[in-house]
């Protein structure tokens, strides 16, 4: 490591579905945070680590999108999002090319006004807009916050991500690494596996069903033997009997699809064959139950 090694904590904030998790996954180089075109897919503060042995280490905190809480799960998500700005070295505010500043953006600006950390405005999805619109977006947002930099990127295609990393390192303090070079996330294999299953459920299901589900990993064991093989049993928790029927699908077609797509991703994660069994259970109004939220890993004391 160099004498001028830099390190620090960086949080990513923004409205739902602006590409926060996609950006982090691209920078880290592997899938950590769940991504979907449906909002509110990230439920916890996910911590990932990017290390360049010659330059420095960035610890990213990916937060749930800022939104109006409708239940206790929503309140937890908002608390997690807000708490990240209080103890970081740098804040990335991620937006899409848009000439109109919405109510949600104004709320975020009000929140960031209370933060001590400097803020970089990151305009994502520039692959879907021309230069003129990006320029108009900068004009629309520049007075909302005292930005130290503005960086346009396409998280999906990686465009501008190297510039963003250089900009982040420029504003981080010098200091030692917090984690060893091999560390990419603070999530366990069980947590990542559960998130993969939830992501595949999000992609396969529609409307309100996905946001009323949680995933419980019941068993996750590696078989002894020469060839690596894992046996995993997981339960998809939903809130209504009607949702259970949709998740299972006609003749079990939907849950089979979710299982097949999940197994493909989990096998890449574990670099091994996977025997995956999925079950569905109804727990009415689990998103408003403190007990159930704790069971599924949403603990306020961890924020």
Automatic annotation (TrEMBL):
Transmembrane segments: none annotated. One of its GO terms (biological process) is ribosomal small subunit assembly. Residues 62-65 are annotated as: G3. Residues 40-44 are annotated as: G2. Belongs to the TRAFAC class TrmE-Era-EngA-EngB-Septin-like GTPase superfamily. Era GTPase family. GTP binds at residues 14-21, 62-66, 124-127. Its main location: cytoplasm. This is GTPase Era. Residues 14-21 are annotated as: G1. An essential GTPase that binds both GDP and GTP, with rapid nucleotide exchange. Plays a role in 16S rRNA processing and 30S ribosomal subunit biogenesis and possibly also in cell cycle regulation and energy metabolism. It comes from Pseudobutyrivibrio ruminis. Residues 124-127 are annotated as: G4. Residues 153-155 are annotated as: G5. It is found in: Cytoplasm; Cell membrane. GO terms for cellular component: cytosol; plasma membrane.
